[in-house]
Write a structure and sequence with these properties.
single chain, about 25% strand, 6-stranded antiparallel sheet, about 180 residues, disordered N terminus, 8 strands, about 40% helix, alpha+beta
Length: about 180
C-alpha cells in the first residue's frame, strides 16, 4: 500500500492515494450523517433546518467553501436561491439551462465540475471558486431543487461527495 522512506510515507500508486482519500471522506461523511438526521428531526422550520445543514457542511467539510440550496421558482423556468452558507452571491435567480445549476435543473443528474475554468456554461460566483458539484433534490420523483457546493480547491470532489450529497437531499426531501 505504501512504503516508509525516512519519516515520510510515500504512496506507491495513485489508485491507493485515491482510495485513501475516499476512505477519509467516507469516515468524515459517516460522522456527519447522524448530525444531519438530527437537524431534520428537530422542531425547527424547514428553512431553519436547511440553513443549519448548510452551516454544518460548510464548517465541517474543508473543501466546501459555499453551500446552498436552489429551488424551482413556482411555474417559472428558473431557480431561486434558498438557504446558504458562505459569501453572499448575486446569483439569487438562475434560469434553467444557465450555469451548472441551470443545467442540473434540466438534466436531473448530478454535475461535478473539477475545473470551473474549463466549463463553457459556468456562472462565476467568485474568482476563488475552482470546482463545483450540484446534486438535484427530488420530491415524489420531481426535481424541485438542488444542493450546490463551490470549492476553492481544484478537483476536490469524489464519488463519496456525490453519495453524501444525495443522502443530504434525501433527508431534506422529507421536510418539503
Amino acid at each position: 500500500m505504501f512504503s516508509k522512506t525516512s519519516s515520510f510515507f510515500v504512496f506507491e500508486h495513485t489508485d491507493t492515494l485515491q482510495q485513501y482519500v475516499f476512505l477519509q471522506k467516507k469516515v468524515m461523511f459517516d460522522a456527519l450523517r447522524p448530525q444531519v438526521s438530527s437537524i431534520i428531526d428537530s422542531n425547527k422550520t424547514p428553512d431553519a433546518k436547511m440553513q443549519d445543514i448548510c452551516e454544518l457542511l460548510k464548517a465541517s467539510v474543508p473543501h466546501y467553501d459555499w453551500v446552498g440550496f436552489y429551488f424551482k421558482n413556482g411555474d417559472k423556468r428558473e431557480l431561486k436561491l434558498g438557504s446558504y452558507a458562505g459569501a453572499p452571491t448575486d446569483h439569487t435567480i438562475i434560469p434553467f439551462g444557465k450555469g451548472i445549476c441551470g443545467q442540473v435543473a434540466e438534466s436531473n443528474e448530478n454535475f461535478v465540475v473539477p475545473d470551473v475554468q474549463a466549463q463553457d456554461n459556468y456562472i462565476a460566483c467568485s474568482i476563488t471558486v475552482k470546482a463545483e458539484i450540484v446534486v438535484p433534490l427530488f420530491v415524489n420523483g420531481e426535481n424541485i431543487g438542488q444542493i450546490d457546493i463551490d470549492s476553492n480547491t481544484p478537483d476536490p470532489f469524489t464519488k463519496a461527495d456525490e453519495t453524501f450529497l444525495e443522502f443530504i437531499n434525501f433527508e431534506v426531501a422529507k421536510i418539503l
